[in-house]
Amino acid sequence: MAYEVAVQSFFDSQIDWKRSPASDQNLFPDFVVKKVSELVGFGLQEPEPLDVHTEAGTRLSPQEFHSQLHQNSEELRLIDVRNTFEYDVGHFDGAIDPGMTHTAQWPRFVKDNIQDLRGRTVMLYCTGGIRCEKASAYLRRRLKDLGDSSTPVFQLEGGIHRYLEAFPDGGHFQGANFVFDKRAQMRSGSASVVGRCSECSSPWDTHHGGRVCAVCRALVLVCDACDATSSGEYWCPEHSEMKGIYHHFLDRFSAEELQLQAGALQSCLAKEVGTRKKNRRNTLRKKLMQVEARLAFLTDGAGASPAPPIRRCRACERPYSECPGSCWGFWRHSAAE
Ligand SMILES: [Zn+2]
Ligand SMILES: [Zn+2]
Ligand SMILES: [Zn+2]
Q: Where do the coiled-coil regions begin and end (predicted)?
């Protein structure tokens, strides 16, 4: 409570606090409070900065959101504005996953889908209601660019967090609410498992900090059984075509294997054309250079027949057997630990 009072006076504005029970372990070891110019970065080049106070969608309470979900289902576009790895472990019935690995991809989704959204009832939700503020303001501005100020855009106030408080049995929400601290997830009463292992498709909804995309480090759902027999490298949906081609750790491959990877990377690179693919071309080029450098090292004679290296964690780079699994993002232990 003392903390809430202090933060309240620091920011000099009303704060919508969300509380959730936890054990006495320190959930936020790197916790700091600061004023920032932009929360939820979209990396936008807007001539006028988005003003969430005047441009965000209409905020609905959990009860209002719940009853809105029962109306005109044909005309409803219910969109999950979180990342795919969050959607994967739990989401509202019938929600659209925009396929994002980070928030900055929202503008791309809006651009590709705005014609379908026009004239429908658009409903957005996220973890705690923060991302929706920006996402709805951005969407409404793009609709306005098209002369459309009548498409209703709603957002769930307080996010899934508040909804699960109001509907402890889960209501229309299935599975778990992924959170970025060491609680890892909040479950509804029904607690059905909606996640699937990306390797074997069996029900699985526990993320592990060491099971991440080799390319972008987004969390990938992989069950313990599959992970036990894996090389430890995975690929998110966005980078699925780089499976078996792009690896983070190169020291476990022979010269022959690296030769094949270099060829595959080159043909991958040739397919990625257009301005949108610029980042991806850079990523592929960088990896190709690393593969070629490693090849040169091996064929030099100096690095002949390397000892097979032990499996390491992609996120923390420690030997995998020593990785606590909480090394990813905000789960990370503080350096002192
Ligand atoms: Zn599996
Ligand atoms: Zn990825
Ligand atoms: Zn790790």
A: none
Are 62 and 179 part of one and the same domain?
yes
Tell me whether residue 94 is in a domain: yes
Q: Is 256 domain-assigned? A: yes
CA of 160 to the centre of ligand 3 (A): 28
Q: What distance in angstroms lies between residue 122's CA and the mean position of ligand 3's atoms?
A: 39
Exposed/middle/buried for residue 61 (C-beta within 10 Å: 0-12, 13-18, 19+): middle
Could you read off the pLDDT of 285-316 as tens digits, one per residue?
Answer: 999 999 999 999 888 766 555 566 788 898 88
In a domain, residue 148? The reply is: yes
Residue 200 appears among annotated catalytic residues: no
Centre of ligand 2 to C-alpha 200, Å, is 19
Please state the separation of Cα 262 from the chain's center in Å: 29
229 belongs to a structural domain:
no
pLDDT tens-place string over residues 88-111: 999 999 999 999 988 889 999 999
Same domain, 55 and 183: yes
Of all ligands present, the nearest one to the C-alpha of 220 is 2
- Helices 106-117 and 130-145 pack at an angle, to 10 degrees, of 50
